[in-house]
Amino acid sequence: MLKSTNLEVGYGESVVVRNGSLEVKKGQVVCLMGRNGVGKSTLMKGIMGVLKPTQGHLYYNGESIIESLPTKRAHRGFGYVPQGREIFGTLTVQENLLIGLESNGTKQKTVPEWIYDYFPDLKEMKNRKGGDLSGGQQQQLAIGRALAANPNLLLLDEPTEGIQPNIVADIQDIIENIKSKQKDLSILLIEQSVDFARRIADYYYIMDNGKIVYEGGELKEKDTQHLLGI
Protein backbone atom coordinates (compact mmCIF):
# COMPACT_ATOMS: atom_id res chain seq x y z
CA MET A 1 0.00 0.00 0.00
CA LEU A 2 2.38 2.73 1.27
CA LYS A 3 6.14 2.51 1.64
CA SER A 4 8.64 5.24 2.44
CA THR A 5 12.40 4.70 2.32
CA ASN A 6 14.96 7.02 3.90
CA LEU A 7 12.79 10.11 3.59
CA GLU A 8 14.51 13.34 4.57
CA VAL A 9 12.03 16.08 5.43
CA GLY A 10 12.36 19.49 7.04
CA TYR A 11 11.62 23.19 6.89
CA GLY A 12 13.85 25.27 4.66
CA GLU A 13 17.45 24.48 5.52
CA SER A 14 16.49 22.70 8.73
CA VAL A 15 16.30 18.91 8.39
CA VAL A 16 13.94 17.31 10.94
CA VAL A 17 13.49 13.77 9.63
CA ARG A 18 16.61 11.94 8.46
CA ASN A 19 15.43 8.34 8.12
CA GLY A 20 11.70 8.22 7.47
CA SER A 21 11.36 4.57 6.50
CA LEU A 22 8.07 2.81 7.19
CA GLU A 23 5.42 0.67 5.55
CA VAL A 24 1.64 0.49 5.84
CA LYS A 25 0.07 -2.63 4.37
CA LYS A 26 -3.46 -2.92 3.04
CA GLY A 27 -5.98 -3.04 5.87
CA GLN A 28 -3.38 -2.33 8.59
CA VAL A 29 -3.56 0.20 11.39
CA VAL A 30 0.01 1.41 11.91
CA CYS A 31 0.95 3.66 14.80
CA LEU A 32 3.88 6.11 14.67
CA MET A 33 5.03 7.03 18.17
CA GLY A 34 7.73 9.05 19.88
CA ARG A 35 8.35 11.92 22.26
CA ASN A 36 7.28 15.45 21.34
CA GLY A 37 9.50 17.11 18.77
CA VAL A 38 11.13 14.02 17.29
CA GLY A 39 9.69 14.54 13.79
CA LYS A 40 6.48 12.49 13.68
CA SER A 41 4.23 15.20 12.25
CA THR A 42 6.97 16.33 9.87
CA LEU A 43 7.25 12.81 8.48
CA MET A 44 3.48 12.60 8.03
CA LYS A 45 3.46 15.94 6.22
CA GLY A 46 6.15 14.56 3.93
CA ILE A 47 4.02 11.50 3.23
CA MET A 48 0.98 13.67 2.48
CA GLY A 49 3.03 16.05 0.33
CA VAL A 50 2.46 19.12 2.50
CA LEU A 51 6.24 19.18 2.86
CA LYS A 52 8.44 18.03 -0.01
CA PRO A 53 11.09 15.47 0.99
CA THR A 54 14.61 16.43 -0.07
CA GLN A 55 15.78 12.81 -0.23
CA GLY A 56 14.37 9.30 -0.21
CA HIS A 57 11.57 7.42 -1.91
CA LEU A 58 7.81 7.18 -1.41
CA TYR A 59 5.64 4.53 -3.06
CA TYR A 60 1.88 4.07 -3.10
CA ASN A 61 0.60 0.77 -4.50
CA GLY A 62 4.05 0.21 -5.99
CA GLU A 63 4.21 3.54 -7.84
CA SER A 64 6.49 6.43 -6.90
CA ILE A 65 4.53 9.46 -5.71
CA ILE A 66 7.45 11.50 -4.38
CA GLU A 67 6.71 14.31 -6.86
CA SER A 68 2.91 14.26 -6.50
CA LEU A 69 1.11 17.29 -5.06
CA PRO A 70 -1.15 16.84 -2.00
CA THR A 71 -4.23 17.29 -4.20
CA LYS A 72 -3.09 14.46 -6.45
CA ARG A 73 -2.53 12.23 -3.43
CA ALA A 74 -6.03 13.07 -2.17
CA HIS A 75 -7.47 12.15 -5.56
CA ARG A 76 -5.61 8.84 -5.38
CA GLY A 77 -7.14 7.95 -2.04
CA PHE A 78 -5.25 9.74 0.73
CA GLY A 79 -7.31 11.15 3.60
CA TYR A 80 -5.52 13.47 6.03
CA VAL A 81 -6.47 14.77 9.48
CA PRO A 82 -3.69 17.15 10.56
CA GLN A 83 -2.74 17.97 14.10
CA GLY A 84 -5.06 20.75 15.21
CA ARG A 85 -7.92 19.46 13.00
CA GLU A 86 -8.10 22.57 10.75
CA ILE A 87 -11.84 22.48 10.27
CA PHE A 88 -13.59 25.54 8.85
CA GLY A 89 -15.08 27.24 11.88
CA THR A 90 -17.43 29.56 9.97
CA LEU A 91 -18.92 26.72 7.91
CA THR A 92 -21.55 24.30 9.16
CA VAL A 93 -20.81 20.68 10.00
CA GLN A 94 -22.52 19.61 6.79
CA GLU A 95 -20.54 22.11 4.71
CA ASN A 96 -17.28 20.87 6.23
CA LEU A 97 -18.21 17.29 5.31
CA LEU A 98 -19.10 18.34 1.75
CA ILE A 99 -15.63 19.86 1.38
CA GLY A 100 -14.27 16.44 2.25
CA LEU A 101 -16.24 14.99 -0.66
CA GLU A 102 -14.63 17.46 -3.04
CA SER A 103 -11.10 16.44 -2.08
CA ASN A 104 -11.16 13.29 -4.21
CA GLY A 105 -12.82 14.91 -7.21
CA THR A 106 -16.22 13.29 -6.72
CA LYS A 107 -19.34 15.00 -8.05
CA GLN A 108 -21.47 13.75 -5.18
CA LYS A 109 -23.38 16.61 -3.55
CA THR A 110 -24.75 14.97 -0.41
CA VAL A 111 -22.99 13.61 2.66
CA PRO A 112 -23.04 9.78 2.64
CA GLU A 113 -25.36 8.46 5.33
CA TRP A 114 -22.67 6.02 6.53
CA ILE A 115 -20.63 9.01 7.76
CA TYR A 116 -23.45 9.83 10.15
CA ASP A 117 -23.63 6.17 11.15
CA TYR A 118 -20.05 6.51 12.43
CA PHE A 119 -20.68 9.96 13.91
CA PRO A 120 -24.36 10.23 14.99
CA ASP A 121 -23.63 13.41 16.96
CA LEU A 122 -22.60 15.15 13.75
CA LYS A 123 -25.99 14.43 12.17
CA GLU A 124 -27.73 16.16 15.04
CA MET A 125 -25.34 19.11 14.70
CA LYS A 126 -25.11 19.28 10.91
CA ASN A 127 -26.43 22.85 10.77
CA ARG A 128 -24.17 24.17 13.55
CA LYS A 129 -21.00 26.09 12.78
CA GLY A 130 -17.82 24.06 13.12
CA GLY A 131 -16.34 26.72 15.40
CA ASP A 132 -19.18 26.22 17.89
CA LEU A 133 -18.32 22.56 18.49
CA SER A 134 -16.26 21.26 21.38
CA GLY A 135 -12.72 20.04 20.77
CA GLY A 136 -13.83 16.42 20.74
CA GLN A 137 -16.68 17.15 18.35
CA GLN A 138 -14.33 19.05 16.07
CA GLN A 139 -12.00 16.04 16.01
CA GLN A 140 -14.90 13.80 15.03
CA LEU A 141 -15.80 16.28 12.30
CA ALA A 142 -12.20 16.33 11.02
CA ILE A 143 -12.12 12.52 10.83
CA GLY A 144 -15.56 12.44 9.22
CA ARG A 145 -14.48 15.02 6.63
CA ALA A 146 -11.45 12.89 5.71
CA LEU A 147 -13.58 9.74 5.51
CA ALA A 148 -16.22 11.42 3.33
CA ALA A 149 -13.89 11.11 0.34
CA ASN A 150 -13.84 7.32 0.91
CA PRO A 151 -10.02 7.11 1.11
CA ASN A 152 -7.88 4.01 0.83
CA LEU A 153 -5.28 5.45 3.24
CA LEU A 154 -6.20 7.55 6.27
CA LEU A 155 -3.51 9.66 7.96
CA LEU A 156 -4.38 10.75 11.51
CA ASP A 157 -2.06 13.10 13.39
CA GLU A 158 -2.66 12.74 17.15
CA PRO A 159 -6.45 12.26 17.04
CA THR A 160 -6.73 12.12 20.85
CA GLU A 161 -4.62 15.20 21.66
CA GLY A 162 -6.40 17.55 24.05
CA ILE A 163 -9.59 15.48 24.01
CA GLN A 164 -11.58 14.59 27.12
CA PRO A 165 -11.42 10.89 28.13
CA ASN A 166 -14.99 10.00 27.14
CA ILE A 167 -14.44 11.36 23.61
CA VAL A 168 -11.09 9.51 23.40
CA ALA A 169 -13.04 6.32 24.05
CA ASP A 170 -15.53 7.30 21.33
CA ILE A 171 -12.71 7.92 18.83
CA GLN A 172 -11.17 4.56 19.72
CA ASP A 173 -14.53 2.87 19.10
CA ILE A 174 -14.89 4.71 15.78
CA ILE A 175 -11.46 3.61 14.56
CA GLU A 176 -12.14 0.01 15.62
CA ASN A 177 -15.51 0.19 13.85
CA ILE A 178 -13.89 1.53 10.69
CA LYS A 179 -11.24 -1.17 10.89
CA SER A 180 -13.83 -3.95 11.11
CA LYS A 181 -16.15 -2.60 8.40
CA GLN A 182 -13.72 -1.14 5.86
CA LYS A 183 -11.15 -3.90 5.63
CA ASP A 184 -9.40 -2.39 2.61
CA LEU A 185 -8.76 0.90 4.41
CA SER A 186 -5.26 1.39 5.83
CA ILE A 187 -4.60 3.82 8.68
CA LEU A 188 -1.37 5.52 9.72
CA LEU A 189 -1.76 7.42 12.96
CA ILE A 190 0.48 9.40 15.25
CA GLU A 191 -0.35 8.75 18.88
CA GLN A 192 1.20 9.42 22.29
CA SER A 193 -1.01 7.15 24.38
CA VAL A 194 0.46 3.66 24.65
CA ASP A 195 -2.85 2.24 25.90
CA PHE A 196 -4.75 3.73 22.95
CA ALA A 197 -2.15 2.51 20.47
CA ARG A 198 -2.12 -1.02 21.88
CA ARG A 199 -5.89 -1.30 21.55
CA ILE A 200 -6.15 -0.37 17.88
CA ALA A 201 -2.78 -0.78 16.10
CA ASP A 202 -1.46 -3.82 14.25
CA TYR A 203 2.10 -2.54 13.92
CA TYR A 204 4.26 0.13 15.55
CA TYR A 205 7.10 2.48 14.66
CA ILE A 206 8.91 4.65 17.20
CA MET A 207 10.88 7.75 16.23
CA ASP A 208 13.70 9.46 18.08
CA ASN A 209 15.77 12.42 16.87
CA GLY A 210 14.25 12.30 13.40
CA LYS A 211 14.88 8.58 12.82
CA ILE A 212 12.86 5.40 13.04
CA VAL A 213 14.55 3.53 15.89
CA TYR A 214 12.08 0.72 16.51
CA GLU A 215 9.45 -1.24 14.60
CA GLY A 216 7.44 -4.30 15.46
CA GLY A 217 4.08 -5.93 16.00
CA GLU A 218 4.07 -5.22 19.73
CA LEU A 219 5.12 -2.54 22.17
CA LYS A 220 7.43 -4.02 24.77
CA GLU A 221 7.68 -2.43 28.18
CA LYS A 222 11.41 -1.72 27.88
CA ASP A 223 10.85 0.03 24.53
CA THR A 224 8.10 2.29 25.83
CA GLN A 225 10.12 3.18 28.90
CA HIS A 226 13.36 3.91 27.04
CA LEU A 227 12.08 5.43 23.79
CA LEU A 228 8.84 7.08 24.90
CA GLY A 229 9.90 8.09 28.40
CA ILE A 230 6.94 6.30 29.98
From TrEMBL:
GO terms for molecular function: ATP binding; ATP hydrolysis activity; branched-chain amino acid transmembrane transporter activity. The keyword ATP-binding applies. Keywords: Amino-acid transport, ATP-binding, Nucleotide-binding, Transport. Transmembrane segments: none annotated. The keyword Transport applies. CDD domains: ABC_TM1139_LivF_branched. One of its GO terms (biological process) is L-amino acid transport. Residues 2-230 form the ABC transporter domain. It holds the Pfam family ABC_tran. Belongs to the ABC transporter superfamily. This is Urea ABC transporter ATP-binding subunit UrtE.
